Description:
The chain is α+β, with helices and mostly antiparallel strands. It is 17% helix and 26% strand. The chain has helices at 2-15, 95-105, 112-118, 136-139; strands at 29-30, 33-38, 53-57, 70-71, 121-123, 126-128, 155-161, 171-182, 192-202, 206-207, 212-214. A four-stranded antiparallel sheet has the order 1-2-3-11, with no helix packed on it. The chain has a three-stranded antiparallel sheet with strand order 7-8-9. It has a two-stranded antiparallel sheet with strand order 4-10. β5 and β6 form a beta hairpin.
Amino acid sequence: MNGLFVTVLVAIAASCSKDDGPFLKYGDHYQGGIVFYIFQEGDKGYVSGESHGLIASFEDLQTADGELEVPWGCCPNTMDCLNISGAENIGIGYGQVNTLAILAVCDEPNIAARLCDDYSIEFEGEVYDDWYLPSYKEITKMNKPKEYILEHTITYWTSTQDKDGEPSKKYAIQVFGWVDQCGPPYPYSDACWHVGSIGGEAKWYKSRVRAVRSF
């Protein structure tokens, strides 16, 4: 009887383990970073009956010299940037695809994609070194109403090349940290709405970087 009782307790404890994906939620610290999105049906990386998703690095990345803002890159000359085939994906699950496409062509140090690719962290005895620059739709999942991962009033690079930019593809997509605004048109209530902005920016422009990995 005692043996059976112990077995049942072990089974229950295992089912509630922190490593069991279904129990993870936004904001949990897991596998080297902060959980911010669980894949939904239709997402690249979704597996029915399993829990997978995206994790953001704990902090914005920086160069060895402590620089927090870096260019998107792929500009052999300051005003002459390359068109990166395969780096125009905007969707969930495509940040790594974009990052690999960028790194296959661009050998510059201290660009956004390389900073992510070089990033490594030891967390709870494990080393996690499979980070990448998030796509546009991935990074927009990092901030939710009243819950934030990205710094406010800061611009961040995505790995998504701006396909609507000039034919020379000199632009990549940035996002501006999402925040809540409260007040008009609801000055007499606690109603808030979630705001942010996106836009194409020259690839030689400098912005911050937040790395992502999949689990």
